[in-house]
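quick one, 506 residues, struct below
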Amino acid sequence: MEKKWKRASGLLSVVLATSTLLSACGSSTSDDGNKAATDSAKPANSKPYEITMAYIQLNDMPDTNLVAEAISKITKEKINATVKLVPISISAWTQQMNLMLAGSEKLDLMVSSSIIGNFGSQVAKGQLEPLDDLLKKHGKGLVDTVGMDLINGSKIDGKVYGVPSLRDIGSDNGIIMRKDLVDKYKIDLSKIKTWADLDPVFQTIKENEPGLAPLVQQTNNNMPGTNMYNSIVDTLGDNLGVLADPGNSTKIVNLFETKEFTDAVALARKWYQAGYILKDIATSQETGVNLVKAGKAFSYTSNMKPGFEQQEKNLSGKDMVAVRLTKPLQTSVSITGFMMSITKNSQDPERAMQFLNMMYTDKDIANLVSLGIEGKHYVKKADNIITLPDGVKQSGYQFNQWEVGNNFLTYVWEGTDPKIWDLTKAHNDKAIKSKAVGFTFNVDPVKTELAAATNVINQYKVGLESGTLDPALTAEFNAKLKTAGLDKIIAEKQKQIDAWAKTAGK
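---
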């Protein structure tokens, strides 16, 4: 991987995705590289150990155990460990992780996130293991591949608590639609320049495709309105104090009083009242891609990246087309949005780090984790190009590869540009970079206020951003946030980012 890539923050789209969404310079590891990674990871592990890894599940994954067995054949030989994969539905992720981390349940590795999860709170509660010493001892290949500039982006109070996945970093946002219906109704995508330009598109689908929702959610906490402002505001992970002009300023403001938020919820409300948005969108636990797959939806808004259309086709089984309505933006959570952390519940943190190192340096491991088993879940058409096996319409292992590891080691699906990783690097390089890239908020000084404000957000945010609540309730929403302590949170966040900006040279 190029040295420039290691130095720059060139990585997200997910997502976030998240992705549903995402994957993401083209670095490839030769057999010699795999051998070097193996040799450096061969410690004297006398006792076998099972590494438990939890991650977010967005799609069907019936063959997870088979993939875990294939991974374990490699890890057993190299680090005397087997691997247990634990996919957890995105709708249950936060609650399940809270339960697992609060108890003594064995858990070695987990996806940590400042977007879908409580990364800052998990650190404040002492639930995640500091990784600095473990990286020095067992993570040389990982550090050489990722680069400390990116790894340092997860630091809280000077310590590393997560390793970011290597993927697209900096997403553009827009809408993705079923291509068959776009073609059927001769929808001119070139006329869609703004979010409001989607009105006649949705009207066409509503009038001609009864029983099909013109617009649905990306995930159960990522609504149509969410993607409208997420593309231009740095939410700093928790939405409680944001950068409204992230490319130029580190001034923290209340998101829910900005024009960006106001405009987004007003348009979402208009669409909902017009019958364009799925009626039960605010309570649905489904993802947009699954609703398209089931023949229940035409489109969903999303964060995007190069190759996004092919990714969503692989997941939904339907040809998809996308219109991008914003420029790529790299935010503070582009690094901390999807990471892998070692938990305090791990009974062997060193072995966990050895496996984590392999996910960034071993091409066989990277492809198993991301794509499944060759011959069963995919077949090779060329050296680096794969497709589904004959007679198979959809893989039995649909991992969201942007969540973990080194995506640049993975094969490319047929139909995606063979130079996708070079395109992704270019996408990352041209993204507008938030002044807060590398900043992580330490929530400890305001954790009480944060908990109270989060409860208020849970009452209003999804409803407003889905269009199911009247935007007039925004005033009530803001009043309750202030009562919960939002002003104190914003003041503390401003204090921290000002101090950080001085040391980071921002």
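The first strand starts at residue 49 and ends at 57.
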